[in-house]
Each structure stands twice: as structure tokens, then as C-alpha cells.
């Protein structure tokens, strides 16, 4: 298409001239973490996924920590853990969740 020319109506409305409609996500949009408030939790989760060859199961505790950080910082709406699929992971006040999973992984080796 030459510079400055207008696209044809069929190009604007998709195939067969229909207007393409999108559907919003179920939970709505959420702000990105531009201030990197939860960057450490995200890195721990990504490192675990890398170590576990993208198997999410062993890394669920890190994902939960990341979601908790996002909820605490107002980067996502607070939600019950059961609705997010994390009801089976308990909070422990004495040990950080990440430390608990590291201890479990060290015992396996």
C-alpha cells in the first residue's frame, strides 16, 4: 500500500467485510508492574520453571507468592486462594513459603 493512501474497507473490517469483535477477559484488565514491586517473586517463579523444565507443579508456591505480592501491592484484585487454585498451599508464619519449597527440594536430592 503506498504511503498516505487509505486502506480499503475490506482491510479495515476483516475478511468478508465483517467487523471483528473482541471479547474482554473474564477478570478484566490489570496494571503491569512498571515499578517492579513484585519483580523478585516473578524471577523466583521463572527460575523455578526453568529448573523444572517448565513443569508448573513444583513451582506453584512461587506462583502463589507472586500473586500474593500483586494483590498486596494493588496490582490485581484480592481473591480467595481457592478460586485461584491455591487452596491446598498453606501459609506458614515461621518459614517463608519459598524457603519451605527449597527445603523440600533439598531433601529430595
TrEMBL record:
<dbReference type="InterPro" id="IPR051383">
    <property type="entry name" value="COX19"/>
</dbReference>
<dbReference type="GO" id="GO:0033617">
    <property type="term" value="P:mitochondrial respiratory chain complex IV assembly"/>
</dbReference>
<keyword id="KW-1015">Disulfide bond</keyword>
<keyword id="KW-0963">Cytoplasm</keyword>
<comment type="similarity">
    <text>Belongs to the COX19 family.</text>
</comment>
<dbReference type="GO" id="GO:0005758">
    <property type="term" value="C:mitochondrial intermembrane space"/>
</dbReference>
<feature type="region of interest" description="Disordered">
    <location>
        <begin position="1"/>
        <end position="26"/>
    </location>
</feature>
<protein>
    <submittedName>
        <fullName>Uncharacterized protein</fullName>
    </submittedName>
</protein>
Amino acid at each position: 500500500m503506498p504511503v498516505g493512501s487509505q486502506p480499503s474497507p475490506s482491510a479495515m473490517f476483516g475478511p468478508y467485510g465483517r467487523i471483528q469483535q473482541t471479547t474482554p477477559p473474564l477478570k478484566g484488565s490489570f496494571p503491569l508492574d512498571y515499578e517492579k514491586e513484585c519483580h523478585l517473586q516473578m524471577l523466583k517463579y521463572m527460575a523455578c520453571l526453568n529448573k523444572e523444565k517448565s513443569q508448573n507443579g513444583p513451582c506453584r508456591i512461587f506462583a502463589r507468592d507472586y500473586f500474593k505480592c500483586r494483590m498486596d501491592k494493588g496490582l490485581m484484585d484480592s481473591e480467595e486462594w481457592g478460586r485461584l487454585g491455591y487452596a491446598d498451599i498453606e501459609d506458614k508464619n515461621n518459614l517463608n513459603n519459598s524457603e519451605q519449597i527449597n527445603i523440600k527440594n533439598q531433601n529430595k536430592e
